[in-house]
Amino acid sequence: MPLLRQFLLNLVRMNNVMLFSFTFVLIAISSFLMWFLEPDVFTDPFVGLWWTMTTLTTVGYGDVSPTTVFGRLYAMFLFIVGIGLIGVVIGKVIDILTGFSRRREEGRLQYKGKDHILLIGWSRKTDFALKEIKEFEYPGDVVIIDQLPKSPVDLENVHYIQGDPANDETLLKANLSEARAVILFADPLIEDLSLIDGKTLLIATSIERMAPQVHTTVEVMVEHHIRNFKHVRVNHFLVSGEMISSLAVRSALSEGHSSIVAQLVSRKHGDDLFEMKRRPGWRTYRDAFHALLDEGATLIADGGDLGINRKLDEEIPPEAKLQIICSKEKYAEIVSKR
């Protein structure tokens, strides 16, 4: 018994690769050895393999079993050594799976997907953004970067990377270069507004240096700090609190203004804002405007240009990103007609 105990302890301490290799060799030897010792019962190595696996896993169907002295002696050896070995192997597999799950939860695994949306900095605003992405039914993954000890959410297609987003290694773990878009939120744990935007600028600089082709949206706390980002390629700036203040004033002065904006920024109520490409039959913005109007949608912009009503007779460029307002169901109909 002391020898068996020492043997099992050595198995537990054994390197995983060596342990799995030893188990594979033992199974292979046992399969061929039983075929060699009792060819009448074990007619081929596969029958030996079948018996070995049912013995090691303690299933023991009993459809085949050794009948000779040497066969039974080896079977007893396998009972004592092999079953203990399989127990250790199963324990190691469980440890590996548990460790993988723990590392994923703690954000210590590298993300290898692409076309994902990268959210940097966790806060209530990030949570709302994540819910909005889900409402949008975005088919890709979402990757969150923060320094929390564990992932703040447990959702399908949402991955967590723990680390400093200003660190190149962290951005590489999030596969920044293959991302579709980055949304950089201001750090809610810093009190000084200038320091918040300073940290945001540092992270934005790292993003621009490593992946200038990725669409980037940045939240800043103070509007005049945007000029400090002039050397950094940022596609859109969001001034924190500015929209809320603007909506509050508009709601007080005219109820309709805030209601319209609230519908457009939320996918839970009213019509939504969607993007579509130019159809082959549309030459000018007027063609697109009237065609969409007949289908129950309103064309309001091309990308960020809201002035297309003043250039209806201009030709639509091939790369146009037409912004339309309609219901989700109507948008599905319009897209299906392309």
From TrEMBL:
Coiled coil: none annotated. It comes from the Bacteria. The chain crosses the membrane at residues 16-37, 73-94. Pfam families: Ion_trans_2 (PF07885), TrkA_N (PF02254). SUPFAM superfamilies: NAD(P)-binding Rossmann-fold domains, Voltage-gated potassium channels. Keywords: Membrane, Transmembrane, Transmembrane helix. It is a multi-pass membrane protein. One of its GO terms (biological process) is potassium ion transport. One of its GO terms (cellular component) is plasma membrane. PANTHER family: POTASSIUM CHANNEL PROTEIN 2-RELATED-RELATED, POTASSIUM CHANNEL PROTEIN YUGO-RELATED. This is Ion transporter.
